[in-house]
Amino acid sequence: IQIAQCFEATRRRCCRLEQDGRRAREQLARVEAERAALEVKLKHARNQVEVEMKKRHRAEAELEKQERKLQLVFESLMREPWGSGVLSGEQCSILSALASRRLGAALVPGKRSSVVDESYQSLLCHSDISYDRTEDEVVRS
Question: Would you kindly state where each structural domain of the chain is located, as residue ranges?
Fold first, then answer.
Protein backbone atom coordinates (compact mmCIF):
# COMPACT_ATOMS: atom_id res chain seq x y z
CA ILE A 1 0.00 0.00 0.00
CA GLN A 2 2.86 2.41 0.87
CA ILE A 3 4.56 1.70 -2.46
CA ALA A 4 1.29 2.39 -4.29
CA GLN A 5 0.86 5.65 -2.33
CA CYS A 6 4.45 6.69 -3.19
CA PHE A 7 3.83 5.92 -6.86
CA GLU A 8 0.59 7.94 -6.76
CA ALA A 9 2.35 10.92 -5.12
CA THR A 10 5.13 10.69 -7.70
CA ARG A 11 2.56 10.52 -10.54
CA ARG A 12 0.79 13.64 -9.20
CA ARG A 13 4.12 15.53 -9.01
CA CYS A 14 4.92 14.47 -12.57
CA CYS A 15 1.51 15.72 -13.75
CA ARG A 16 2.05 19.06 -11.99
CA LEU A 17 5.53 19.38 -13.45
CA GLU A 18 4.19 18.60 -16.94
CA GLN A 19 1.52 21.30 -16.54
CA ASP A 20 4.14 23.77 -15.27
CA GLY A 21 6.34 22.90 -18.26
CA ARG A 22 3.45 23.48 -20.69
CA ARG A 23 2.64 26.83 -19.09
CA ALA A 24 6.30 27.85 -19.22
CA ARG A 25 6.56 26.86 -22.91
CA GLU A 26 3.37 28.82 -23.70
CA GLN A 27 4.68 31.86 -21.84
CA LEU A 28 8.03 31.55 -23.63
CA ALA A 29 6.25 31.42 -26.99
CA ARG A 30 4.23 34.55 -26.12
CA VAL A 31 7.31 36.43 -24.96
CA GLU A 32 9.28 35.43 -28.06
CA ALA A 33 6.43 36.58 -30.30
CA GLU A 34 6.31 39.90 -28.42
CA ARG A 35 10.09 40.28 -28.72
CA ALA A 36 9.92 39.60 -32.46
CA ALA A 37 7.18 42.22 -32.85
CA LEU A 38 9.24 44.74 -30.87
CA GLU A 39 12.29 43.99 -33.03
CA VAL A 40 10.23 44.74 -36.14
CA LYS A 41 9.03 48.02 -34.59
CA LEU A 42 12.60 48.92 -33.68
CA LYS A 43 13.77 48.20 -37.21
CA HIS A 44 11.00 50.37 -38.66
CA ALA A 45 11.80 53.16 -36.20
CA ARG A 46 15.50 53.01 -37.09
CA ASN A 47 14.66 53.16 -40.79
CA GLN A 48 12.34 56.11 -40.21
CA VAL A 49 15.05 57.92 -38.22
CA GLU A 50 17.52 57.30 -41.03
CA VAL A 51 15.08 58.66 -43.62
CA GLU A 52 14.38 61.74 -41.50
CA MET A 53 18.09 62.31 -40.92
CA LYS A 54 18.73 62.20 -44.67
CA LYS A 55 15.89 64.68 -45.25
CA ARG A 56 17.29 66.94 -42.56
CA HIS A 57 20.80 66.83 -44.02
CA ARG A 58 19.43 67.68 -47.47
CA ALA A 59 17.36 70.53 -46.02
CA GLU A 60 20.34 71.87 -44.07
CA ALA A 61 22.54 71.72 -47.17
CA GLU A 62 19.87 73.58 -49.16
CA LEU A 63 19.50 76.15 -46.37
CA GLU A 64 23.25 76.76 -46.29
CA LYS A 65 23.28 77.10 -50.08
CA GLN A 66 20.45 79.65 -49.97
CA GLU A 67 22.11 81.52 -47.10
CA ARG A 68 25.35 81.77 -49.09
CA LYS A 69 23.42 83.09 -52.08
CA LEU A 70 21.64 85.64 -49.90
CA GLN A 71 24.93 86.68 -48.33
CA LEU A 72 26.49 87.15 -51.77
CA VAL A 73 23.54 89.25 -52.93
CA PHE A 74 23.72 91.35 -49.78
CA GLU A 75 27.47 91.87 -50.12
CA SER A 76 27.04 92.74 -53.78
CA LEU A 77 24.35 95.29 -52.98
CA MET A 78 26.44 96.87 -50.26
CA ARG A 79 29.67 97.04 -52.32
CA GLU A 80 28.39 98.22 -55.65
CA PRO A 81 28.53 101.96 -56.22
CA TRP A 82 25.17 101.90 -57.96
CA GLY A 83 23.72 100.15 -54.90
CA SER A 84 23.96 103.26 -52.82
CA GLY A 85 22.16 105.22 -55.51
CA VAL A 86 19.37 102.65 -55.88
CA LEU A 87 18.98 101.95 -52.18
CA SER A 88 18.05 104.67 -49.74
CA GLY A 89 19.93 105.11 -46.49
CA GLU A 90 17.03 103.57 -44.63
CA GLN A 91 17.03 100.51 -46.91
CA CYS A 92 20.80 100.12 -46.44
CA SER A 93 20.44 100.26 -42.67
CA ILE A 94 17.60 97.74 -42.75
CA LEU A 95 19.70 95.39 -44.90
CA SER A 96 22.65 95.82 -42.55
CA ALA A 97 20.49 95.07 -39.52
CA LEU A 98 18.97 92.01 -41.19
CA ALA A 99 22.36 90.79 -42.29
CA SER A 100 23.85 91.12 -38.85
CA ARG A 101 20.95 89.32 -37.20
CA ARG A 102 19.96 86.68 -39.76
CA LEU A 103 23.00 85.96 -41.87
CA GLY A 104 25.70 86.59 -39.33
CA ALA A 105 24.13 84.31 -36.73
CA ALA A 106 22.99 81.71 -39.23
CA LEU A 107 26.34 81.40 -40.99
CA VAL A 108 28.34 80.81 -37.84
CA PRO A 109 29.11 77.06 -37.83
CA GLY A 110 27.50 75.17 -34.98
CA LYS A 111 25.36 78.12 -33.95
CA ARG A 112 22.20 77.23 -35.89
CA SER A 113 19.90 74.41 -34.73
CA SER A 114 21.68 73.81 -31.44
CA VAL A 115 18.40 72.93 -29.73
CA VAL A 116 17.47 70.58 -32.55
CA ASP A 117 20.95 69.05 -32.51
CA GLU A 118 20.69 68.37 -28.78
CA SER A 119 17.30 66.72 -29.07
CA TYR A 120 18.50 64.78 -32.08
CA GLN A 121 21.54 63.56 -30.16
CA SER A 122 19.52 62.44 -27.16
CA LEU A 123 16.38 61.11 -28.80
CA LEU A 124 16.83 60.29 -32.42
CA CYS A 125 20.35 58.99 -32.84
CA HIS A 126 19.82 55.31 -33.54
CA SER A 127 23.54 54.62 -33.67
CA ASP A 128 23.59 54.84 -29.85
CA ILE A 129 21.39 51.78 -29.60
CA SER A 130 22.40 48.42 -30.93
CA TYR A 131 20.93 44.97 -30.54
CA ASP A 132 23.40 42.36 -29.34
CA ARG A 133 21.96 38.98 -30.26
CA THR A 134 24.55 37.04 -28.26
CA GLU A 135 23.29 38.46 -24.99
CA ASP A 136 19.65 38.86 -26.11
CA GLU A 137 19.35 42.36 -24.70
CA VAL A 138 19.46 45.94 -25.93
CA VAL A 139 22.87 47.40 -25.18
CA ARG A 140 23.72 51.12 -25.22
CA SER A 141 27.16 51.80 -26.61
Answer: 1-80+87-105
